[in-house]
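[step 3/7] fold_predict: job queued, chain A
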Amino acid sequence: MSILRAAETTQRTDTGRQRRGNEDSAFVRAPVFAVADGMGGAQAGEVASQLAVEAFEAGLPEDGSPEERLAEVVQRANRRIHELSRTQHEHAGMGTTLTAAYLDGGHVVIAHVGDSRAYLFRDGQLVRLTQDHSLVEELRQRGKLTEEEAAEHPQRSIITRALGPEPDVQVDTLSQAVRSGDVILLCSDGLTSMISEKQVRQILADAPTLQAAGDALIDGANAAGGKDNITVVLFRVEEVGDGVLDQPTMVTAGPQRNGAAAATAERPAPAARLARTQGFTRPSERERHFGRLGKTVAALVAVAAVVFLIGGGGYLASRQLYFLGTNGQGIVTVYRGFPYVLPFGVPMYETSYVSGVAASEIPSDRRSTLLNHDLRSQSSATNLINSIERGQISG
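[step 4/7] structure written:
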């Protein structure tokens, strides 16, 4: 079975031509993405949307189905926004929409409240995945308005569901099967209220990259009037090889050029980076394995870990621990669990996320410290892999 990941991502937000401030917020940290459109005036809308996306910083809960886990984060955000709106006068009445996506294996899971939207772009076709929680959408579903009338209705911005007004909120969730090459678009209504879905589809079809598509979508909405803040998040789904669990590879620091790490040029697009890994040379047997003493220590630790697991509580603890290494193709990978293999070849870890970066792209003097299998929290591992993918790790 193949692993799917978000290979190319981009995020753009713009105030628009008729607003003085931007109340939109976005979250882009694969495999989770979100767009929020705040409301409430002054700084209240900005605060609400920021609180909504910040709820994803801690990651998803461990228990439940992917839809339940994503919805729980939305509920968590709603409770925080509601409480703040009740206790701080300057934030009274604030709220926000929220549309979030979580790439889970061969599916993208959506959680949705309000009139921001999620779309699937596949083979030149654009499919809306979410349903607006708005007065106009309800009228359209009842047959009171046509598609054309709904698009031009003066009250199309009135929403019927949002985060913040009530202590609990109904969250729509769905799971959409995806395949390599699919593009997911999340956007605030500042985009879809300005340009048609037909125009969005054409822009996505014509753009050479997702970054170019994001720029063109923002430009198109502004050219049509830019009456609201505009935010778009795009990511492309890509297959990254056999899903059989790879044993993480210990990467050691290689020789430096002229006594210093080689300077890195401008980072290529993720797809290009992945293509370059085909020529990656795996470390030698001596480099990939511990010495005799190291093996003995590792075996003792593994045995101790088994005793700990049997003793109770260890399994749950391992579900909270992560570490970075490389898979069999030399790709930087986040693993969950302990970096050991039990007797009979049973690993104490599982693949959590495969990045788009080859270990060879990381400056040699940083590899041994970044990919040394140190145990981390989920947020720590996520922050580190995010920095690596953005090219923010330097020598």
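[step 5/7] annotate
The mean pLDDT is 79.
Residues 245-389 form one domain.
exit 0
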